[in-house]
Amino acid sequence: MKITPVKKLVFTAVCAALCLVLPMAFHSIPNGGSVFLPMHIPVLLCGLICGWPYGLVCGLLGPFISSFTGMPPAAVLPSMMVECGTYGAVAGLLMRYVRTGSATGDLYISMFSAMVLGRVVAGLAKAWIFTPGTAPFAWVTTSLVTGIPGIIIQLVIMPAILFALSRAKLIPTRYPKGD
């Protein structure tokens, strides 16, 4: 079973829409967005399921669409687009090329690498382009430490979502003969 380009486009549109809806729910909690990272979930899902071009588009489009609600604020939007775009692209690339023989292993390698690279690229973009003169590794506190609950949620919920979609035959099984 293969996902058609039309299904990938529809899934990307749904994930981009979730980038608007999920932050609205989490921003009712003080600092909910920076703690629970709700926009990262649909972007990672899109990259993992549809591949890097779709993940990149979702990662760029999701924060942009959501910014019309004021989340993320205009000052944060460029670095958020860089971060989420990197998440979607890296997750999609690695899911295509990483083959450990274990769907769970492939998933965690792809997700964890995308999470780290997205934060590093966004941190460097903030330090060198968007807010030059700031400490280049200030992102470690603001992006990593504050978001630990969100990172844990992603690492727990993403495999469950992907395996549920696979069992429902909505996405292809990675290793059809068993995991």
Keywords for this entry:
single chain; mainly alpha; 8 helices; 179 residues; globular
Can you describe what's shown?
The chain has a single domain, classed as Arp2/3 complex 21 kDa subunit ARPC3 (Orthogonal Bundle), CATH 1.10.1760.20. Helix content is 72%, strand content 0%. The chain has helices at residues 5-26, 32-36, 40-50, 52-66, 77-97, 103-130, 139-145, 148-167. The chain is globular, with a radius of gyration of 16 Å. The two termini are 17 Å apart.
Shape by Cα distribution = globular
For the sheet with most strands, the description reads:
none
| Spatial separation of the terminal alpha carbons | 17 Å
Total number of domains: 1
Tell me, rounded to a whole number, the average pLDDT: 89
Q: In the CATH scheme, what's the topology name? A: Arp2/3 complex 21 kDa subunit ARPC3
Number of helices: 8
The top level CATH class name: Mainly Alpha
Which spans have pLDDT < 50 for at least 5 consecutive residues?
A: none
**Would you identify the CATH architecture?**
Orthogonal Bundle
**Class inferred from helices and paired strands:** mainly alpha
Please indicate the percent range of residues in DSSP E strands (runs of 2 or more). under 5%
List the helices and strands in order: HHHHHHHH
The tally of strands reads 0
Cα-based radius of gyration, to the nearest Å: 16 Å
Helix content: over 70%
